[in-house]
Design a protein that fits this description.
about 325 residues, alpha/beta, Rossmann fold, eight-stranded mixed beta sheet
Length: about 325
């Protein structure tokens, strides 16, 4: 097994903490996809709300006001939700991309995450309901992610945001989008992104080998079931060779120079931990500033659970958000 790149640090690959809830891996019903998504999303929202309601932060989070609107494109509309902090602003602006393997979840499933950034970080968060695979394969969802970033930069001031602090953030597949959007903005000479927040991001598709973290945690007993010797995401790519494209697999990009500073949040007990560790090292070697938070004892997707380590991770992102100059 030859690694694609060196790792930013060498983790212990320990066992999950006692409080870590390890759910059964989710298996999509491709024969009845719309009905499966609807049922799964409702069940997830109900479960997360049940977990969140006893928390002291629940009522403050729910006090955040939201605006739902549409980005009109020639072929479709992109639903977006804007989370506006209390007060007059101006507020830092974050574009957030939810996770879900490029094929599931929506704005409501992830509602508590942007609410936290708005309530406790004073950050205006704009998040899209991007098109999902397999109905809309790569790069359709990524195009929605990039278009949302452009729209957010152009319209943030209308809602009290200031692009003097303009960041992108995402987890898992959404972390893949945040990394790729940062690269696209550089390549297309788009808006300046001041920081990229990458929460357990997928950084390489179809790598063809199993990393140490995947061998340790990828059998499904730690929530994710992954075997990269076969395929990680055949439902997302239109053709397997697209997995080598930099916007699909940022880790494979030849040039990472000139990208925004990166802040990583990784779960220790996560099959794709090594993907983030390799990408962080490659960014650092390209001259990009890197801040890395390895959250021990946690599993993939832990930010959707009200652990103390979840809130500490969110607070780390808030602290790392560039301030607006006064």
């Amino acid at each position: 097994m030859k690694p694609i790149y060196r790792k930013y640090l060498e983790p212990a690959y320990g066992e999950p903490s006692p409080e870590a809830m390890i759910e059964t891996p989710q298996r999509m019903d491709f024969e009845n996809l719309a009905a499966w998504r609807h049922k799964t999303h409702l069940e997830t929202i109900a479960h997360l709300t049940h977990l969140m309601k006893p928390c002291a932060c629940y009522e403050p989070l729910m006090s955040i006001s939201v605006v739902n609107t549409l980005i009109h494109k020639d072929s479709h509309d992109i639903p977006v939700r804007i989370y506006r902090p209390h007060g007059e602003g101006p507020f830092p602006v974050m574009v957030f991309y939810h996770g879900g393997g490029w094929c599931m979840n929506n704005l409501d499933v992830y509602d508590y995450v942007p609410r936290y950034f708005a309530q406790y970080g004073g950050i205006m968060v704009i998040t899209p309901d991007y098109r999902l695979a397999p109905e809309h394969k790569y790069p359709k969802g990524l195009e929605d992610a990039y278009d949302t970033m452009l729209w957010a930069h152009a319209h943030a001031a209308k809602y009290g945001g200031s692009t003097e602090s303009f960041t992108v953030c995402g987890d898992s597949a959404g972390g893949n989008f945040a990394a790729a959007v940062s690269m696209m903005a550089r390549d297309k000479k788009g808006p300046v992104i001041h920081k990229q927040f990458l929460i357990f991001p997928a950084t390489v598709l179809n790598p063809g080998y199993r990393s140490e973290s995947e061998l340790r945690y990828g059998d499904g007993g730690y929530f994710l079931e992954i075997n990269s010797e076969r395929s990680m995401c055949e439902w997302y790519l239109d053709r397997p060779e697209q997995g080598a494209e930099p916007y699909a697999s940022p880790l494979l990009a030849e040039d990472l120079s000139g990208l925004p500073p990166a802040c990583f949040i990784s779960a220790e007990c996560d099959p794709i931990l090594d993907q983030a560790l390799m990408y962080a090292a490659k960014l650092e070697d390209a001259g990009v500033a890197v801040e890395y938070h390895l959250v021990t004892g946690m599993v993939h997707a832990f930010i959707n659970r009200p652990y103390q380590k979840t809130f500490e991770s969110f607070d780390a992102i808030i602290r790392a958000t560039p301030p607006i100059s006064t």
